[in-house]
Amino acid sequence: MADKSPSSEAAYGPVLGVFFAASAFLIWGLSPIYWKALQTVGPLETVMHRAVWSFGFLMLIIFLRHQWPALIKALTNGRTLLVLCGTTLLVAINWLIYIWAVNNNFLLQASLGYYINPLVNVVLGMTFLGERLRKPQIMAVLLAAAGVIFLTVSYGRFPWIALVLAFSFGLYGLIRKVAPVSALVGLTVETMLMSVPAAAWLIFMHSRHSGSIFRGDLRMDLMLMGTALMTAIPLLLFTGGARRITLSTLGVMQYLAPSGMFLLAVFYYREPFASAQLWTFVTIWTALAIYSADTLKLYRQGCREQSG
Angle at Cα 220 formed by Cα 218 and Cα 224, nearest 5°? Predict the structure, then answer.
């Protein structure tokens, strides 16, 4: 009997890709529920546990997927390791601010940050990579900037959480372009670099009887260990989806994550949602619609040119 696996992959690959990517973005979008459950631990200690347990779990995946050569190559290449030291700092800042925002009822700002992140990427590309902006991109960036300024003036509060999250994640992606490593290997090295000081501090806290783990609360212990799953599983799903679907599809689907945060903030956690915030989100959504439409148009043009 003929092997049907190649044709099956061709037929169901995009469907699986959409499923994997959607699952990743939905996990990221609903993750505030998990981080809220760790509110008593504190953001800094939560990030330290996330780094330590994620490193252990990712090392297991590296072993199972036979990625040792790629990991060793990254660790022994001075330039790559230096780049990953920079991305480690950025991802640590991003994790810390995000968990702090969730636990202090600033989830709306966090969602705003991840909504404007694609537009921040456009600005970073123009600034550091010399990319030229198309007119729809310029319009989208100006609309987003107008929304942030409007929120600052009308609401009387500078949305620093949103901007720190957007720029830290944007810079993270920009710098990671320089390091020739996969997402799995890169995150393994980053969590390793974070784990060294984090593990030392957690052991010190435990010796002073001030840590949150192994204090007789099995549920809390499992949840702190489970931060590894919250970190690694959506990453694996995302990479699995990215290999099977087009970049334009992935770009549109990425808004599932901040949309989940937004819905949780407004309808589940009942965060204050004033008219100034509403108009800011409407402005950002309009900017993203323009940006996405332009990206999709460019992608289709490229496909027609290749086929022609």
Answer: 120
How many angstroms separate the CA atoms of 40 and 113, rounded? 24
pLDDT at 1: 41
Report the domain count for the chain.
1
Average pLDDT by consecutive 10-residue portion of the chain (308 residues)?
50 82 95 96 96 97 95 95 96 97 96 93 89 89 91 83 95 88 94 97 92 92 97 92 80 90 95 88 94 83 71
pLDDT at 237: 93
The encoded tokens of residue 114 equal 């991840």
Q: What SS3 class is residue 180?
A: coil
pLDDT of residue 308: 61
Query: Does residue 17 lie within any of the structural domains?
Result: no
In this predicted structure, what is the pLDDT of residue 6?
54
Query: Does 88 fall in a domain?
Result: yes
Helices (H), the chain: 5-37, 43-64, 68-76, 78-103, 107-128, 135-155, 160-176, 183-207, 218-225, 227-242, 247-253, 256-263, 275-307
Burial tier of 267 (Cβ tally within 10 Å: 0-12, 13-18, 19+):
exposed
Range of the domain at 86: 23-307
Of 252, 235, 257, the closest CA to residue 110 belongs to 257
- Residue 133 belongs to a domain: yes
Residue 173 included in any domain:
yes
d(CA 85, CA 272): 38
Scan for tokens 């460019």, then name that residue.
298
